[in-house]
Each structure stands twice: as structure tokens, then as C-alpha cells.
Amino acid sequence: MSTPKAMQQSFALRFSSGAFLAFWCLIAAFPIFWIAVMSFKSPVDAFAASPWDVITGPATRANGDGLSILDIVVGLVVLYFAIRWAFTRLPGLVRQYCPPGMIVLGWVIGAIAYGILFVLVFFTLMPLILGPINSLLGPLGSPILGLTTEHYVAVWGENEFYRNFLNSMLVTAGVVTVSLTVGTLAGYGLARSGSDLAFWLLILALIFRALPHSVLVAGYLPVFINSSEILAPIFGEGAPTLYGQPWAVIAVLVAINQPFTIWMLRSFFQNIPAELDEAARVDGCSHFQAFRRVIMPVMWPGVITTGLFSFLLGYNDFLVTSLLLDAQNQTMVPAIAGYFNRETTTTDQVEAVAAAVSITAPLFLLVMIFQRQIVSGLTAGAVKG
Amino acid sequence: MKFKTFAAFVGPSVFMMLLFIAAPLVSVFIQSFQVTQPILEQVEVETCTPGFLTQTCTTETKTVPVLDENGKTMTETSWVGFQSYRNVLQMDKFWEAVGNGSWNDINQIDFWRALRFTLMFTLLTLPMVLIVGLAIALAVNNAVRSIRGPVIFISLLPFIITPVIGSLSIYWLFVGDGILTRLMEQWSGQNISMFAQAWTIELLMYFFRVWNNAPFAFVIFYAGLQTVNMDTLESAVIDGASRWERLRHVIIPHLMPLIIFIALIHLMDVYRVFEEIVGFRSQAHVISLQWLTYDFMTPDDAGNRAMSRASASAMLTMIGIVFLLILPLRRTWRDHKGSAN
Lengths: 385, 341
What we know:
- The complex is a heterodimer.
- Chain A is an all-alpha fold.
- Chain A has helices spanning 11-38, 43-46, 51-56, 58-62, 69-88, 90-97, 103-137, 150-158, 161-192, 196-210, 213-225, 227-235, 246-271, 274-282, 287-295, 300-316, 319-324, 332-342, 346-383; strands at residues 66-67, 145-146.
- Chain A starts with 10 loop residues before the first helix and ends with a helix.
- The two termini of chain B are 24 Å apart.
- The chains are: A mainly alpha, B mainly alpha.
């Protein structure tokens, strides 16, 4: 498609538009890039005055932690092949070893196994092999880029951040599965029913969507704390205290997420032609059978997209989890608040940075893999109106 | 679809929303008129210290909580009417401050300070996010096709990042010995601390919010730009419309429904402003309505949560969002009716 001459842009306009874009990309990426760099440096370097010192890390290097040219080259090569392999071989392997119908589970297991393998190779095997080679090489093997993983070791090992990680995984996995199960049913029902009731339900959901979460938590908190007394008439002695229970938080987050989920899934279901399930109904299926046999096989793109946003809600939440979970069931994001109180030395600060980067890394991977779905999810509700 | 089938499909979802959204609203409403306090009683306690010849004994009256048979503090709940609201609003102090015409005095009262910031923040970030989002969308639309993918990837990062972590990452850039503060100090030759006074913190909060929300507006505008009618644009060119006039009279009217959609979502989301305050640790200088409720709910040193005041401030927060959304919702409603006719 050639642009008509009158629509062509002057060089100045093209240049300034390009410059603006470059500027925006710099602003968008810089804070995240910078905390990632800081987390690998010794405290002196992480808060050094000159940006160059933060990047190269002379103090970290002086401690003997650093990468030589050989390390960098080998590391980049391994990284390149790891990413390539993930996109070329991994899908085939998953398809080969996974029983049909469990493909989602297969992917989850495949991804986790791949991640563990990568961490083992990259952080255990490579230093073991490269260490002796570096010492043999002399000047070529001497470190030029200061880099240390001590803060990550401290955060994940000594501070037992993996507990918070597991809690986060539990809560997000629960939120995603429950809210998708409940939400797909409701979204399908709302999409296929043209009744006034459906319309009013959607409006009600929109109003619920607007409520600040603190308003809701103010309602839960006293009930959850005293729930063993309140529920005693129903459950007897074994009535649970809901406060601090991950599954209670899952239920709360699912409910908070419901309005958004049903709006989004409804718009996806509306894109599936109604003729499809009408045909199934003519053939004698009930509504549920039609949903099960005809709609379920074609709904996955919409469900995956909605699942991504449910994941983000569960993963990113601070307010609900910090108020409704006790210390031992704490998820990652509120746990980082614990670092504020201790943040007395610069080492503590850099450890907090490392924890923050650990929280961000999965999200980074998520955008990398699911960029298309995220964009389509954002535009699904809006563009169609 | 029959009503029964419809009910079976939406039932679980509606049940969850009623149980975990509607019911808490009712209970917050009730709680805001109640106060739950431990029952206290006055006991005379005699403490004796061994002394020479006789013991020295002192008797004093102490206030101690009454314990039930399990050793737990007994509490009583009483109706107090609007007392909790009065405690939160502190109208007497407020009117006094208004009478003095002293802005500073109003800012001393937590609720009014939070309200001022929340409303100003919500309303000022809205145009900023819309303009920045539209500018990025136009620039990406202008760019070579091959770099659009990477640009969208980078743009999504600030949007997808956990808000608390996002605000922390900016906090660490501007904290006392953060890299950007150091650079600014080098340029200006002065000692700069960005987190010591309210206005610099607020400035950073505006920056964070635009950084965080502009990608959302950008992605939606970008999708909208793909559907602009090229014929209309070309005829506008033939009619001699300049680039600016084309943007003003063709593109923006085309994007109008999207602008309203983004505005609606933005009002809902930014009114909840909270994470910045946690990330920037700004509670001494800047607080928001959500943070106020959160603060009432977090246990104090004695382990007590000010639930009745939290409920009152939650109710007030809710009234605020209703007022804020009435205008855009009425407009959408009218559009909906208009398109139906």
C-alpha cells in the first residue's frame, strides 16, 4: 500500500515522532532495567554516584565477583539457544509426551521443568565449568563486569522468600482456576441471553467493578477474624477462622475479579457465532451439553486471555492479601513490605531490590510469551464498544 | 434461553458477587454505626512490697478488660449513630479551619487531606494519561512496521508490573542516594531530597501513574487507529485540512467512544490510588482515601483495629466514587438509549 503524496509526512515530523517514541521506550523500560542491574551489585555499587559505576560495578568486582569476557560470551550463547529451544523444540516435546485433552497441564509442567533445568544449567553447571577455565586463561578470564548473586541467595535462602513465592502461586492458581470456571459459565449465559435481567446484571457488575477494594475488606475483616464464633452454629466445633486462610483470600479475590471476568468473557463469547450452539441444540443437545461439546473446544483463546488478567489481579494484589493473610501465609508482594521496616543498611535495601526483581521476572516472561493475548484482551472490551 | 438455564449458568458467579461484594457492603454500612469495644471494669489492686517491720502496701484502682471463661477479652457492641463519621470527618475542626481560611489547617485533618489528594490526583491524571497514550499510539502508528512489536512489548512492561513494585522501582531511582537524585544534584549543585516534602512526592506520583496507565490507553487507542476510515482522511486532505485539523476533526471523533471507555476505567482505577503511598512510603506527607481506610484497619501497637472508623471512611470513599462516576455513566446510559432507538 503506497501512501498518497498528500499524506506523506515531512522529515521533521517523522523525526520528532520517532524521537518521542524512543524517549517513551527509554522511560518505560528504564526503572525496571535499573532495578534489575542494581540487584546484581554490591551495595556500594548499587547506590554509586556515577551510573557507569552502577553498571560495571568496580566494588563488586573488587570482591572477586564478576564476569569475564568468556563468561559473557558463553552466557549469551547459552541464553540464545535456551530461548530458541524453548520456542522450537519444547512445543513438540510437550505435544509428544502429554496425553490429549490435558494439554494445558502439560504446558504448565513443561514450563516449570524447563525453568528448573535452565536455572540448574545457567547458575550451577556453568559457574562450575567456567571457573577453572577462567583461571587458566589469565587476562582474558579476569572479571570485567562486577556481578553478584549474593542478594538473591540471601533473599531466597536466608529470608525464605520461597515460602512467599509458594503462597503467591497457591493464591494465584486458585484465583485463576476458580474465577475462570465460574466466569466462563456466567459469561456464556450472559452472552446468549438477551433478557433485561442479563443487562441489569452487567450494569450491577460494572458498579461492583468501581468499588475500591478497601471498602470490601472493611466488610470482611471483622467477620473473618470472628468467623469461628459466627459459623459455630452451622459447623459446630470445627468452624474455621477464615482470617489468614489462603482459600478465603482466593474466594475474596475471585469475587472481586468476577465483574471484570464476566464482562470480558461475555464479549469473547459474543464473537462465537450463536448458530454454532443453535445447531447443536437442534441436534438434541441441552444448553449444558451444547456448552460442553461445542463451545468449550473453541473458547480457549478468550479463556486464556481472561486467565492472564485474573493471574495479574491475584499476583499483583497488595491490599487484600496484606490485610487478610497472617505472616506465615503471606504472599510475595505484601512480604516485600517487611523489608521496609528492616531497611536500615544498604545491604537490606539491595536485598529488597532483589526481591522486587524476583517478583517482576515472572511478569516479564508473561508479557514475552503472551503479548498478543494481552493486547487482544485489552482491546476486546473497548473497540467493540 | 429459559430463565432456569440462565440462572444455572450465572448462578455461581452471582452467588459469589452477592456473598463477597454485596454482603460486605451491607456489613460495612452497619458497622459504621457501631462501635465494638472491650468491656472494662475498675478493680482495686493492692500491691505490697516487702519492707522492714511491715510491708508497704499501696492500693490503686486499675482499669482492666473483663475476660470470659476462655480467657478472651469480652467485647460489647453499641450503636453510636454518626459518631464514627464525626470522628473521621472532624467537621468542627474543618469549619474552624475554613473560618480561618487556612488551607494548612484543613490539611492537618487526615480525611480532608486524603480527599483533596485523591480527587485532584484522579482528575489531573486523566487528561495526562489520555494525551500521553494518544501521543504514543500516533507515534507507533507512524513508525516502521518492524519495530512496532518490540515497542508494544516495552510499553506493556510498566502496565503489567505489580503497582507496588513499580512505585518502588521509581522510589529507588529518586531515593536519597538513588541515581537520578545524584544526577540532579550534580546538575543543580544543591542537595535534593525528593521524599522530604509533599509536592515533590506528588510530582513523582503523577509521573508514576502516567507511566503505569498510559500503556493501557495507548494499546486501546492504537487498536482504534487501525480502524480509522482512510477515505474520510483522504477527503479531509483534499479539502485542505492540515495535519492538526485532521487529528482534531477526523481522528479524535472516531476515537471518542474509546476515550470515554478509558476515562471510565481510569476514574474507577485511579480513585483507588493506594500502591504509590505504600511504595513511596509517603504516609507522613501524602495520603489517599483508600490508604486512610487501610490505615484504620491495620492493627496498631496494641493490636486493635479501628474498625468502626474504617467502616465510616469506607462508606465515605464509596459515596465519593458514586459522585465521580455519575456523569460518565449517565452519558453512557444516554448513548445506550440513543443507539437502541
